[in-house]
C-alpha cells in the first residue's frame, strides 16, 4: 500500500496543498514550523482517526476555517482508492470512500499507517494513558470494529462516572445506588472485550518487538511488555503499586468475573471519589528491559530504542496479518534524535517497506539510502516536488 497523492484544504497551516508521492522512500524537508509534520499527521489520520500530537481534532483545522479536508489516493497494486476526511471544528466529522459517504470509523479499513515521532518517547516515559493510546490505535488498525467498542466503552464510562458523582452529591450510600448495576453490566461486557484484545496484542507484539529492538540497538536487552490489569488488583496510576503479580485472569469468563468483583470491592471508594476505579481505562502496559521497568530505569538511548521497537514491531505485525500489503511507515523528525549508528540501523530496517515517509529539518540527517525522493516544504507551501 502506498499514498500516491495527498490533497489538503484548510488543514493546519495549509490553505491548500497538493503533493504526489512514490513507492519507496519519500523525504519532506524544511525548517521547523513550516508544515512537514502536518503532512505526516494528515496521512496518519486515516489510519488512527486522530493525531499523534493532539487529542482533539479542532487544532488540525486552519485558523478561521470551520472544517479541514484531507484527501488521499491510495494504491494497492493495480487498485486505487480515494479517501476523504472532513474534520469539523464543531460537530461530527465526515468521511467518503471513492466519493461515497461512509462512517468515519470505516477509514482505517483502507489505510494502515505506522507513524513514529519524538512524541513517542512519552509512550515509554509518560503516564499510562500514553501507552493505552498506543495500544488502542494499533487495535483499531488490526480490527477497525474496535473503534466502536472503544467508543461505546468511553460513553458507558462517562455515564457511570456521572452517576457516581451525582450520587456523591446527594449523599447516597453504596447500597442505595442500585441503578449502578445496569452500567456495571455494560462496562464489564465492553471492557472485557477491550482487555482481551489488548492481551492478544501484547502477546503478538512480543517477538517482533524483541527482533526490532536488537535490529535498532544492536543488543539483546530482552525487551518485554505486559499488561497491568486493574481487574486483577493492580493500580498502575499509583507508583507504589506492586507490579509483580499480574495477568492472573485468563479468558473472557475469568476477566468478567474479576471485573465484577473489582467493581464490587471498590464501590464505596468509587462513590466517595466520584470516579470509576476498575477497568481498561486505568490499565497500563508495563515495558521492561533486562527485567527492569523501562520507565525510571532505562537510559535515554534505551528509551528511544524501546519506543522505536514498539512502532517497528507494530509495522511488522500489520505487514504479517493484513491483506492490504505493507503499512505505510512514517518517521517524523526522528533521525535528528539518533546517533549515526542508530540512524543507519533504522534506515536498514525500514528500507524494504513499500513506502516510507520521512520528515527532517536537515536533509543530511537522513541516511543517504532513504534520500531517493525529496519534497521541500516552506511556510505551508510545497515549493519543490521533484526527484533529486
Rg, nearest Å: 22 Å
In the residues, how many domains can be counted?
A: 2
Tell me the structural class. Answer: alpha/beta
Percent of residues in beta strands?
Answer: 15-25%
Helix content class: 25-40%
CATH architecture of the largest domain: Up-down Bundle
**CA-CA gap between termini:** 23 Å
What sequence of helices (H) and strands (E) makes up the elements?
EEEHEEEEEHHHHEHEEHHEHEEE
Strand order of the largest sheet: 2-1-4-5-6-7
CATH topology of the largest domain: Glutathione S-transferase Yfyf (Class Pi), Chain A, domain 2
Uncertain stretches of 5 or more adjacent residues? 240-247
> Rough shape?
globular
- Reading off the top of the CATH hierarchy, the class of the largest domain is best stated as Mainly Alpha
The tally of strands reads 15
Amino acid at each position: 500500500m502506498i499514498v500516491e497523492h495527498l490533497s489538503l484544504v484548510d488543514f493546519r497551516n495549509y490553505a491548500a496543498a497538493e503533493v504526489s508521492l512514490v513507492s519507496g522512500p519519500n523525504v519532506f524537508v524544511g525548517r521547523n514550523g513550516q508544515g512537514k509534520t502536518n503532512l505526516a499527521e494528515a496521512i496518519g489520520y486515516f489510519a488512527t482517526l486522530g493525531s499523534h500530537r493532539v487529542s482533539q481534532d479542532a487544532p488540525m483545522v486552519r485558523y478561521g476555517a470551520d472544517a479541514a479536508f484531507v484527501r488521499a489516493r491510495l494504491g494497492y497494486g493495480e487498485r486505487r482508492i480515494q479517501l476523504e476526511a472532513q474534520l469539523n471544528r464543531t460537530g461530527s466529522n465526515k468521511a467518503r470512500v471513492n466519493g461515497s459517504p461512509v462512517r468515519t470509523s470505516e477509514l482505517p479499513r483502507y489505510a494502515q499507517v505506522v507513524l513514529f515521532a519524538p512524541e513517542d518517547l512519552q509512550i515509554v516515559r509518560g503516564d499510562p494513558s500514553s501507552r493505552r493510546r498506543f495500544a488502542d490505535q494499533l487495535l483499531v488498525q488490526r480490527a477497525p470494529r474496535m473503534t466502536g467498542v472503544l467508543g461505546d466503552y468511553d460513553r458507558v464510562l462517562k455515564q457511570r462516572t456521572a452517576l457516581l458523582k451525582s450520587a456523591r452529591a446527594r449523599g447516597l450510600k453504596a447500597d442505595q445506588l442500585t441503578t449502578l448495576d445496569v452500567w456495571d453490566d455494560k462496562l464489564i461486557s465492553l471492557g472485557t472485550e477491550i482487555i482481551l484484545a489488548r492481551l492478544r496484542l501484547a502477546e503478538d507484539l512480543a517477538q517482533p518487538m524483541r527482533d526490532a529492538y536488537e535490529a535498532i540497538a544492536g543488543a539483546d536487552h530482552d525487551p518485554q511488555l505486559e499488561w497491568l490489569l486493574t481487574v486483577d488488583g493492580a493500580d498502575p496510576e499509583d507508583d507504589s503499586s506492586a507490579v509483580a503479580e499480574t495477568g492472573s485472569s485468563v479468558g473472557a469468563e475469568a476477566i468478567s468475573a474479576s471485573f465484577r468483583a473489582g467493581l464490587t470491592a471498590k464501590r464505596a471508594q468509587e462513590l466517595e471519589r466520584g470516579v470509576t476505579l476498575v477497568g481498561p481505562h486505568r490499565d497500563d502496559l508495563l515495558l521492561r528491559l533486562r527485567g527492569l521497568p523501562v520507565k525510571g530505569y532505562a537510559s535515554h538511548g534505551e528509551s528511544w530504542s524501546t519506543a522505536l521497537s514498539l512502532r517497528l514491531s507494530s509495522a511488522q505485525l500489520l505487514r504479517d496479518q493484513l491483506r492490504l500489503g505493507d503499512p505505510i511507515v512514517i518517521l517524523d523528525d526522528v533521525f535528528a534524535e539518533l546517533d549515526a549508528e542508530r540512524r543507519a540501523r533504522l534506515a536498514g530496517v525500514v528500507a524494504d517497506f513499500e513506502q516510507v515517509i520521512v520528515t527532517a529539518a536537515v536533509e543530511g540527517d537522513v541516511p543517504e539510502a532513504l534520500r531517493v525522493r525529496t519534497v521541500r516544504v516552506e511556510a505551508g507551501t510545497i515549493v519543490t516536488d521533484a526527484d533529486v
